[in-house]
Amino acid sequence: MNKSIDAVLGKVREAGAQALLVNSPPNRRYLTGFSGSAGTVWISEKRRALLTDFRYIEQAKGQCPGWEIIHIDELEKSIAELISQEGVDAVAIEAQHVTVSQLNAWRKAFSAEIVETEGIVEAVRMVKTPDEVEKIRKAASIADHAFAQVLPQLRPGITELEVAIELEFTMRKAGASGVSFRPIVAAGTRSALPHAEPGRRVFAHGDFVVMDFGCVVDGYCSDMTRTVVVGEPTEKHLLIYDLVLRAQLEGLKAVRPGVTAKSVDSVARGIIEEGGYGQYFGHNLGHGVGLEIHERPRLSPKDETVLEPGMVVTVEPGIYLPDFGGVRIEDLVLVTEDGCSVISSTFKELYVVE
Questions:
Q1: pLDDT confidence of 1, banded at 50, 70, 90?
Q2: Domain 130-353 carries which CATH code?
Q3: pLDDT bucket at 2, cuts 50 / 70 / 90
Q4: Nearest Cα to 73, choosing from 85, 84, 81, 65?
Q5: 67-101 burial, b if ≥16 CB within 10 A, otherwise e?
Q6: Which fold has domain 2-125?
Q7: SS3 86
């Protein structure tokens, strides 16, 4: 983690500051290992400190070896003392993670200039360490296992909510600490809603069913989507599914170091557009995954980020037809030195629920 902190400090210096305050819970955990719900990180050339209250002091001591743990009663006062002790002229903050009221309080309490920054720690988090990748692999393996356990239970008449609950229960039983997000299970015309919430809709013949889910292991997330069909598929079912599958496979082939995120999106998007369904693919091709389910980079038409070994992204094209249904196929992918490695292991052939 020292290299990560050095990289963060380099970006702080570029911003014209001598110290950084970190409020974002994922960024706080990334830097220190602390999983509690309250704490502020101070990073400077001289000091690495976690400021927290009485409730978390012992937890912080156990989770944050090498970090100074500062017991606070008044956060502004404690930070002001650090600024004074170190002679800091400018302190950087995470602008997107600080409320207006907190910012106003800091302006009144601090003698140093406040430098508003965005994405300093997130930029470093994009490239995962081997330990981080291993945790993501474990989370993905549990998700693969859960899908394999739930698949034989699918049948006409079962509800979206029943399947979502079963997926979550199975992942937790297999060792996950929780879900990455509430599982998406959407049947029939509701499968055309990319982020549909599971409800009482029952599976029926002719339905596409989209299942998007993941879990958390040691703080790290997984994310996977598979689509099945209930009953014998029609030509339209097969056409749409095969087009999305081809786009997904070509998108995977395009993931490699040195290419931009937008170029990978373009490969998969181009296939769907050539198939005549471009207007029905309205979201990004993918996103980074780690301590959060949605991280940088974004495999989007606008993201110029150059992919590097160690980045973990999703590749998840989709087609969503109102009044018919939708298809999405998603895998987790690790960028390697010479290409990529697909982390998800569940098969992608169209599964027919009898």
A1: low
A2: 3.90.230.10
A3: confident
A4: 81
A5: bebbebeebeebbbebbeebebebbbbbeebbeee
A6: Creatine Amidinohydrolase; Chain A, domain 1 (3.40.350)
A7: helix
